[in-house]
Each structure stands twice: as structure tokens, then as C-alpha cells.
């Protein structure tokens, strides 16, 4: 039986620092229906910045 990906889609998180660095993760669509924003490490600028979900 196939796994349902409706609830947890794969998303890309792109850095707001303009470096083009991305993280790939999954999110729960029921808990976070809006675009996700996380503070993560960007190795190109060597600091923590906001990463926003792109579609």
C-alpha cells in the first residue's frame, strides 16, 4: 500500500540572505497550513538567518 503524502508534503526552505542556499524538509499541512518560516544556519554567510518556504 502506498504512503499518503497529502498530509506531509516535501518543501524547500530558501535563505532570506540571498545566497540561494536551501534546506529540504517535510511539514505537516494540518498544523502549518501557511508558509513556514524557520531560523536555520546558512553556511555561505556563516550565521543563522530566516529560511522561508518556497513553492
From TrEMBL:
The keyword Zinc does not apply. It comes from the Bacteria. The lineage of its organism: Bacteria, Bacillati, Actinomycetota, Actinomycetes, Propionibacteriales. GO terms for cellular component: ribosome. Belongs to the bacterial ribosomal protein bL33 family. It comes from Kribbella alba. Keywords: Ribonucleoprotein, Ribosomal protein. This is Large ribosomal subunit protein bL33. Coiled coil: none annotated. SUPFAM superfamilies: Zn-binding ribosomal proteins (SSF57829).
